[in-house]
Amino acid sequence: MPPKAKAAGKGRAPAKRKLAEKFPAGEVLTDTGKKTWKLGDPVGQGGFGLIYLAQENSSKSVGADAQYVIKVEPSENGPLFSELKFYMRAAKPDLIQNWQRSHKLKSLGVPRYWGSGLHEKDGKKYRFMVIDRLGTDLQKKFEECGRRFPRKLVLQLGLRVLDILEYIHDHEYVHADIKASNLMLSHNDPNKVYLVDYGLAYRYAPDGVPKEYKEDPKRCHDGTIEFTSIDAHKGASACRRSDLEILSYCMVQWLCGQLPWEDKLQDALYVRDCKIRSQENISEFMDECFTSQEKPDELQRFMEEVRALGYQEKPSYEKLRSILRAGLKAIKAEDDFKLDFSPANGAVSPAKKKIKRKNPSDDTEPDEIDGTVVKKKRVAKKPEVNGMKKSPKKKTPTRPKKASVARKRAAPKSRPEPDSQMSPVGPQKTRSRSKNAAS
């Protein structure tokens, strides 16, 4: 779960991060609160290091029933730094417990933070963090269900994620990377779901003051390309409406199987433009995703409510929850807090696709926590000249090609900018002349 790294100089490849050496079972780590933790077997491996089962230090060895995991990385790498800041500020057990009590929630899907610190071994220093152990992720469940979740389940998941987002938003953070592989079931209770991977979490309102809208061309398309918000596509920092927009795309995909722009995820501008058009005419977007018989009116209403939000505006979480509950009522169901992952009727698993991610700070291999894919390796950009992609020079062939082969293809016409984009203060029809994310 990498944080934002410092940009490398021009023409330089990002520095390779060192991997943490494997520690033997029984290794004891001491956190900043002087609490000791004992490592068990590793349960995941990523670009930054290993993730181990763990328990509070005792004479007993750490078994398969361990309730904690510890992430370990070389201290000079720093990929846990951003995530640590979120956990230390917003995921302490007493904060979560008090919120659950005051909001009368049966559970809240934010992993609890139990400690962190530095560990030294053989002259090398390592950073570590202790959090709750979780189970399988929803992406695995989605594939097992033929890439379609039942409508009741989608609405229940939406309600659970809304509870999570209201909590982290109230604690000055946005997540910015909501998706099935970042939603995990509890290790002990398959009816509880948790939002993980706060490597892209952003403190949008330090000391309670929301930051102003500002586009940065260097940050265009941050997040997971098929779900990320229009704000992110334009290079603006994530805000509360960004998280809710991402959630809406997730719910549509979970219900219909595939978003309309998933055929060209390698083209970030195409994906951005498709999303902008979907926001301009949400009804048409829903018609593209569903048949008239299957069209979920509650998801259209949810998206319309999110579209109307300004960049700094606080959402009405209760109104959004009421929209999803109305959807449950329309199918004669209720939120019984039981998550049924039985395949939806007629669901057929399509060919798997590679998920493209644009994250300028990410140069790690996939991380896994009990099987959860977290990050992808960064792909180097092509050089640009006057804002245009410059293709590498081709070698001149020694023999002339046949005329039918040597014909030059006509250069593709540039894609016109859409007429309407999500603005800092909500939807508007004025034309934006931004190029990628120029302000």
UniProtKB/TrEMBL annotation:
Q: Which InterPro entries match?
A: CK1_Ser-Thr_kinase (IPR050235), Kinase-like_dom_sf (IPR011009), Prot_kinase_dom (IPR000719), Protein_kinase_ATP_BS (IPR017441), Ser/Thr_kinase_AS (IPR008271)
PROSITE patterns assigned: PROTEIN_KINASE_ATP, PROTEIN_KINASE_DOM, PROTEIN_KINASE_ST
User: Where does the Protein kinase domain lie?
Assistant: 37-328
Q: Which GO terms describe its molecular function?
A: ATP binding; protein serine/threonine kinase activity
Q: Which Enzyme Commission numbers does its entry carry? A: 2.7.11.1
- According to UniProt, the name of this protein is non-specific serine/threonine protein kinase
Composition bias (Basic residues) maps to 390-412, 430-439
Does NAD appear among the keywords? no
Quote the record's binding site residues for ATP.
Answer: K71
One Pfam entry name: Pkinase
Entry keyword set:
ATP-binding, Kinase, Nucleotide-binding, Serine/threonine-protein kinase, Transferase
Family according to the record: Belongs to the protein kinase superfamily.
Gene this protein is translated from:
vrk1
Task: Please list where the region (Disordered) is annotated.
Answer: 342-439
